[in-house]
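== Folding task for one protein ==

=== Format: two labelled lines per protein ===

==== Paired sequence and C-alpha cells ====
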Amino acid sequence: MKKTIILLLIITVLIISSCSRQATELKKSTWRGVVLLDKNDSPSAKFSELPFIFSYSKGKDGKDLIVITNADEKINVTEIYNNGDSIIVKLPVYKDEIHAKIMSADSIAGEYLHVGSRSKYTLPFYAISGKTERFAGANKPPVSDITGTWEVTANETDSSKDMYVAEFRQSGNKLTGTFLTSAGDYRYLEGAVSGNDVMLSCFEGYYTKLFRAKITPDGKLTEGIIIGGPTSKEKWTAVKNENAKLPDPEKLSMLNSSFQDGTETIDFSFPDVNNKTVSLKDEKYKGKPVIVSIGGSWCPNCKDETRLFGELYEKYNLQGLEIIGLNFESNNFEESVQRIERFRTQLNANYVFLYAGETGRKVTETLPFIKVFKGYPTTIYLDRNHKVKKVHTGFSGPGTGKHYEALKKDIVNTIEELLKEKAGS
C-alpha cells in the first residue's frame, strides 16, 4: 500500500512537472542564419558558409513573421510552425524549408531542405539572434572599390565558356549587386569587400548562393567561385568593362522558320490544374493577343516574370490580353499541380497555368514549333491571329535595377501594340 502511494505521488509530480514546463520562446530580434553548402567542410572552415540576415517578430495579425533581407529585397515568410522544442519554416513560392531544433531563446540548429525541379537535398543550418553582420569579421580595409560593371567569364574550358555581366555597388566594406545571365539574374546579392576578398550571398530558396573572389593587384577578379549546393559550383573570373553586355535575348531561342516568319500559327494542348485540356484554339483565346510563358514553379527568374505578368494581366485582361503559363515540373501530375497552385497563388497571377510535362525533357520535343530552346523563362508574344511577334529568353528581375525597368517598359509597349492590332490584319 505504501509503495503504491509513493508511486502515485511520483507520477503526480511528473505530470505536474510536464504540464508546467514552458516551451522556449525565440527572441523577437535580428538573427544571422547560416547554411553550410558543403557538408564536407568543417564549421570552422567558413569557406562554404552561406550567411543571411533575418528578423523574427510578430506581424500585424499577431502571428509569427520572418523577414529575410537580401540587399534591398525583403522576403516575408509567414508559414512558420513552432512546436515548442522545434520550428519549421516554409519559404514562400518554392518547396524549400528549414527544420530546426530550438537550442535556446537565441539559437536554433537543424537542416535546410531544398527541393528543386529535379534536385533534392538537405544541408546543415543554424541561426543565432542578435547578430547583424552578414559576413562576420569582414572588416579589413578594402584594397580597392569594385563599384561598376564587370565582364564575367564562368565555367571556362578549352571548348566553351559562359559569359555573364556583374554589377557591383560598394560603400566602404559593404557590397551589393547582381550577376546577369542570358537566363536571368542571380537575385539581390549582399556582402562585403574585406582586404582583397570579395564575398556575396543570397538566400531565398532556389537561388541560395554564395559568391567569392579575390581582387588582384592589377584590379581584376580571380579565383571566383559560385556555390549553390553540394554539386553546384561555378568558377569565374572578371575584368571591369562598363560596356559589357549580354547577347540579345530576342535572338537566343528560335522557332522553326514557318512559325518564326509568321507563316503558321502556334497551337498546343496541355492540361490545366483541374486536368482539363486547354488549347490556343479554344474560344477563350480566339481573336486575342496571347503571351505564352515557358517556365516552372522552381525557377526564380520565372517567379519575377510571373509576378509582373500577374500585375499586367489585371491591367490589360479586360482589353483582351490573355496569358498562359506553360509549366515544366516533376513527372508527377498531382505533385506538379500543388506546386503550380502555390506558385500562382502566392504571386497573385490569376491567368491560366498548364502542366507541360517534366523538367529535363527536351522542350523542343514537347513544343515542336521551337527549334532552339535556351532557357527558362522563354516567352512568346502572339498577335490576335496567334502568329509570333517576338520571342524573349530570360528575365532580368527587380534586383537588376535599370535593366528590370527597361524590360518592364518594353513588355508594356509590346502588350499595348498587340492590343491595338485588329484580328486578320
Q: What stands out?
A: The chain has three domains: 26-129, 148-240, 254-420. The helical segments are 2-20, 257-260, 300-316, 333-346, 363-366, 402-420.
